[in-house]
Write the structure tokens for this entry.
Amino acid sequence: MNTIISQFKSKEQKLKKKPNSYVNKYLFLTNDEARVKCALRYLIQKKTRIPIAAALKDTKKGIRIVESANKKGESVSWITLHDLYTMGVLYALPKSDELARAYANRSGALYTGRLLKDAVLDITRAFDIGVPDDAKSKLYCRMAKCYLALDRKLSDRAKKTLDLAREYLDKIDNANRRAEMEQTINNARSNYTRSRPYPKFDYSRILPNIIDENPKIKRASNAIEIQYSEEFGRHIVATRDIEPGETLVVHQTYASTLWPGWMESYCWNCSKRVWAGVACNQCTNVIYCDLYCLHMAWAKHHEIECRIIASLKQNNRYFAQDLLALRLAVRTFIEAGDFSKLKKKIAEIEEEQDPLAKILDEDGVFDEKRFASYYTASRKTSSSFKNALRAVVMSYFLAKQTEIFSNRSATLDSLLNNKRFVSMSALILRYIEIIKTNNCNVNVNGDNNLQMSRGCIFNPLINYFNHSCDPTAYLIVAGELSSVVTLQGIKKGEQIFLCYSFPFLKLPQRHRRMLLSKYSITCKCLACKLDRGPDFKNLLLVHKMTPVPEKLRNDFILLATTYKDESVYYTPEFPGRELHLSVTLQMMKLCQELHTEYTKNFFSLKERLMNIYSCYGR
């Protein structure tokens, strides 16, 4: 993808000087089908070769990876070994001996890392496929040690498993290995350690809940409504006074993707961290929590995208956004059933002129899962010829690697008159431009608590919260769930804002301006108006400090002395989270009641809330 875009960019300035060039013609086109046809004609004229790639199962490569991990042994960390064995799982054929071997080896890394339930899961999978008799003693013994370390109540199960391990001792031909294994089995009950399990959290379980459901917006609080204006477009407004810490939205993310480098460690369906994952049966691109997630993803989108991810991924700096746009287009097509029904749906939506009526059902209710909700998401139609090129290239991958257009032998020339190809390309172009201004990055905390993006999500309702570098609410993404909670009190009738880049408390203005211009976003917060960054907090009315009330004083002092290093907020096992959150929210409420907003104290409390909420999502 980058090669095609780079070749175009190298000629772009010359093309702009030619009145009849495709680049200049593109500027005057008024619909997406005409735009993608223009881009397609350009590719045909340049006789562009679009490279196709495939990520197929490769038994030999999988064996090499597993053997290299075995040689590394204790010289590398258990996580490194785990990741290598996971690659072995990805490359192995379904139900093959190589897959069983990769599961068995990965269980050892998981046992070392104290992910004991996951280790048992991998051992069970290995046995289900089939394990050589001479390897069974070792695996049964490891399983027994997992049971013993997990819970004393499992000691009977551990004893039976150790008995099974003894039954297969005579299958080990090497006398020394057999003696070592027998000793390990005999010592298993006395040498195990009930160590603390590796901290693995399901963050979706600790997300705050909505108190009062909104009858007009599904899965949202009745404290908000969607309004429209020429200045702000569709936006979210408070219908009553809202307190700090209230939950406004809890939605299942409609569409999400991962960046390369994260696709082997996070579930392709639900976006949760995976340790004992299962691979797609067809490709080597992605991993899943279990067979349920695998089947769900296959039904929703992966049956089609499976074959083209490798083509899309090669040398593509837009990969996550492009895949998100493609996924929306694929889901749109699957849910519609065929192209004629899809065109009929689009025509019905475009007939409606009222911006709010467009997104509501017959009963006047907003449901983010309806086609109209995401098809009508805000879009700034770009004059960028590159977007149309990207859309055509993605549709070409679909044409050459799937049956969606029923002709895998099609050429660029023949596709020019293929109505379904042009319709799909136009739909992808629309979603590329929607995603550009509506996707949200999902960050995880890496080494030294540095935020790293693992992927991006698209959720129609959440995108109606406009941007501010001084947000009044915070977006939490936990696996496949997204939640919006307030950072401060909000008055009835006030607009509610999220931050889609970095708040002014964390990033200087010039860096924020660059990020916002990239996504065509403007901000009118006070810090942006005054051209300020993190230093703005220190220039405010420092002397207006909020007094700590008597009922909070002991907790406040305890937290202030115990958790001086704020990096503890980022750790999943942060023990003071609930107490710290409760005290900070009460202090924020008091701060606003005493009219001490826009003080150093006010922004310190807001920053602390952001840090605490960052623990809720991964």
In short: The radius of gyration is 28 Å. The longest strand covers residues 451-458. The chain has three domains: 1-57+258-458, 59-191, 550-616. The mean pLDDT is 85.
